[in-house]
Amino acid sequence: MTDLKPVRKPMSKKLRFDVFKRDAFTCQYCGGHPPSIVLEVDHIDPVANGGSNDIDNLVTACFNCNRGKAATSLTVIPQSLSAKAAEVAERESQVQGYHDVLEAKRDRLERQAWDVLDACGVDRTVGCSKDQFQSTKMFVEKLGFHEVLDAMEIASAAKGGIHRCFKYFCGVCWNKLRKQEGN
Fold first, then answer.
1. Residues 6+ apart with CB under 8 A from 27
2. One-character DSSP codes across 61-128
3. Torsion angle, CA of 167/172/177/182, rounded to 10 degrees?
4. What is the CATH number of domain 13-69?
5. pLDDT, tens only, 86-128
6. Domain ranges of the chain
7. pTM here?
């Protein structure tokens, strides 16, 4: 099936003149007027969209404005610069808000990871390995602080030094994760 273009009906000179006269021989888009511009009659609802030659659907336009508008309906209004700026500002605000939430989550996970490691006897001034810290953070994120603290308390009760305590702690956490995934 082919798209048939609406047939443009000829417009009388009298109708053109009546439109120009009604619009004070001024382009209704840019405000230009003869002799610096050539006036044309533009369809508000474009012929391509089924617009008619009814005087209420016609407006005076200069050559450049009429070509610039083309078959675009006047209901399609380009976004103004201030509206674009407001939209960009809103997007930036949302991105910053999202960043703040992620930053707060990261800070909370790090704080809670250190609280769990304290229960094992890790000295914050000396610290622990990066892998131990990252593992603890991951367990806190996946299991929740209280479950992980409980696992560390179980591991700490077994005694045997910090390294052995941490290995036992990881085993307890992995078992909790497997159990959680099984439910």
1. 33, 37, 39, 60, 61, 62, 65
2. EEHHHHHHHTT--TT-PPPPHHHHHHHHHHHHHHHHHHHHHHHHHHHHHHHHHHHHHHHHT--TTT--
3. 130
4. 1.10.30.50
5. 888 898 999 999 999 999 999 999 999 999 998 887 877 777 8
6. 13-69, 103-182
7. 0.52
